[in-house]
Amino acid sequence: MSTATLTSARKSTQAIERPHPLLSVLTWELRRLLASRLFWIQALCFFVLVLFVIWVGREPDQFGFNTFNGFVAGTSAWGLLHILPTGLLVLLALLLPFVAADSVTRDLQRRTHELLMTTALPTWAYVWGRYLIGLLVSLGLAVLLLFAILLMGLLLHLTVPNYPAPEIGNVLILWGGMVVPATILVSSVSFALGTLFPRLSLLIKIGMLVVWFVGAIMLPAGLGDQTAPPAWYSAWDPTSAATAKGMLFQNTIDFQNLTANPTGAAQFQTAILTIENRLSDLGAWLAPHLILACLSLLLVVLAAFTFQRFRNTFGA
Q1: Is 63 in a helix, a strand, or coil?
Q2: pTM
């Protein structure tokens, strides 16, 4: 056998034995998560808590006119505008910093960072591998939230009289436009800041919680219920609280116009069904939400570019 043949065979064997560094990071992180009982318990607790919140908000609005009455289903488009930004999405956003911010700093806390950095693993693969797994877990929680909405909506439809089944298209639009961009945004910002400032990991997580709570609960509450929020605020609000508030304000006006002089209970309930399953002005806020999610990825790029394998801030 010639020397060239042996060299070629040796190179082929080495190529087979050495998987792509990014795949190596992804694989070991997935194995760690799948082997963790705490991870599965936390996911189950989150799912149960989301189901409970949806059940509590199953009738966020109730209307009456003389002897006519009706309610808005919590899993309809109108109902989700009530409970999604200020309830379900808040729960998700409060959990995501703890998932993403410690992706790199976990090695510092466990004192395994120095050992990892002495290996031949490229820096970019280490950082991006940790980020992608954190993002995958975050999106997995978002999918659990979607499944909980559809499941609870179906259960309520089967057990509560006159409760409409959730319209999957509307649920997917609101989930894809509000939950997914927010998940990417919070996960990316938390990871980037936690990677750039590892010693401030706890402060970063607390700061993310406070900022999101203020943006989703306190600022929209200060706007009042008599006026719609400014158009720019509704479009660019990453928490979607102002977005939902503007859409709800328009829904209320349209509903009042349709039920100004109802002639019967059937017409009254039809007006509710017409408004609660309608989504308007999607383009006004959907594109800005996606843009914010994409911009957050730039912070991850910055974190990966400036990450140093050894520096004083990584000291014990």
Answers
A1: strand
A2: 0.85
